[in-house]
Design a protein that fits this description.
mainly alpha, 334 residues, 73% helix, 14 helices, single chain, globular
């Protein structure tokens, strides 16, 4: 294991991290998003990850006090119910939080020079593999976990719909809706769409959980680096430099094969999960390329986001194209 411990040469701004943490804490409780975050209590994931980073930092020369504080905070968080207390989802959520933090800590201890994305991807893969083995060894296997997730997502969505319906039935809201009849129809369509999300999200639980975990790992990594000058790995690169191993394109290829070929009908659900996970990664890579092309002119990106379909197609094409073209590297080499 690499024992080298370096010191941060300059302080990183808290603002990007602050807004990222705000989004992480608020988005899981917004309409439509309540069914897309497998673990709604995102602090349950974040705190143990920072604790794991603090332990690794202590092992390479950091303060033991910082590690003890975050370990205590983690224990307290893990003792709190996640969702309805005593349910299978509650146990699943807390179990995943422990698996993810432990995996990230072990991978970080193995090498402090590994770049963050490779480290986090390995950690998520390791945690997923262990969780998969646990699911296979349990009664009813994976179906039981999927059913528990579906129940939890349906419960959240039903509660959100009740809140929206109660606000629409408020006398003041009702008076406004009477003056604008078209708005009420839009609200009803939105509620119908929300009801359709939980069963679909339950089948995509592995991909959604992996993406949520990667996001939390990035924020936990950024938070740790701002709390102590003791580094346990390279800093996060700017979005404009985000890239990963080009061999990951095979994840998309396998996913598409499972979804499209009739011979792999039984693996179609796994194909959809692969497409969602790796598609999201290439989408983010495409956003990085687009931000690099824009060179700080965020108005171009904002305009594209006003048409979501166009934005997704453009960024996904840029992300996939970067696998072969790698314009950013070519420009630097030139």
């Amino acid at each position: 294991m690499a024992e080298a411990t370096t010191r941060a040469e300059k302080k990183q701004s808290w603002w990007p991290l602050f807004w990222g943490l705000v989004a992480l804490l608020i988005c899981p409780y917004l309409p439509f998003f309540v069914s897309l975050f497998p673990i709604q209590q995102t602090l349950l994931l974040l705190v143990p990850i920072v604790a794991a980073c603090s332990i690794v930092g202590w092992k390479v020369g950091g303060r033991a006090a910082l590690a003890l504080i975050w370990i205590a905070f983690s224990v307290w968080m893990l003792l709190q119910p996640a969702g309805e207390s005593g349910t299978q989802y509650d146990q699943m959520a807390r179990g995943w939080a422990v698996l993810l933090a432990a995996s990230f800590g072990l991978v970080s201890l193995w090498s402090t020079t590994t770049p963050f994305f490779a480290r986090s991807l390995t950690s998520v893969g390791l945690a997923t593999g262990i969780a998969f083995l646990i699911a296979l060894a349990s009664p009813s296997g994976i179906a039981r976990f999927q059913h528990a997730a579906g129940e939890e997502l349906t419960r959240r969505t039903s509660n959100m719909i009740e809140l929206i319906q109660a606000s629409l039935d408020d006398p003041e809201s009702r008076a406004t809706l009477d003056r604008l009849p078209g708005v009420e129809e839009v609200d009803e369509r939105a509620i119908d769409m929300m009801r359709e999300i939980p069963p679909r999200a339950a089948t995509l639980l592995p991909a959604l959980l992996a993406l949520e975990s990667l996001a939390v790992l990035a924020l936990g990594w950024g938070l740790y680096r701002r709390l102590t000058p003791v580094e346990i790995g390279p800093p996060l690169s700017p979005l404009t430099e985000f890239r990963f191993n080009d061999q990951l394109v095979w994840g998309l290829a396998v996913g598409a094969t499972l979804c499209l070929l009739p011979a792999f009908e039984e693996g179609k659900n796994a194909g959809y999960n692969l497409l969602l996970f790796f598609g999201a990664l290439y989408l983010i890579r495409g956003i990085g390329v687009l931000a690099w092309i824009a060179r700080g002119k965020w108005l171009l990106i904002i305009v594209l986001t006003l048409i979501p379909q166009v934005f997704i197609i453009v960024t996904l094409a840029l992300g996939l194209g970067d696998t072969w073209l790698d314009l950013r590297k070519r420009v630097k080499a030139g």
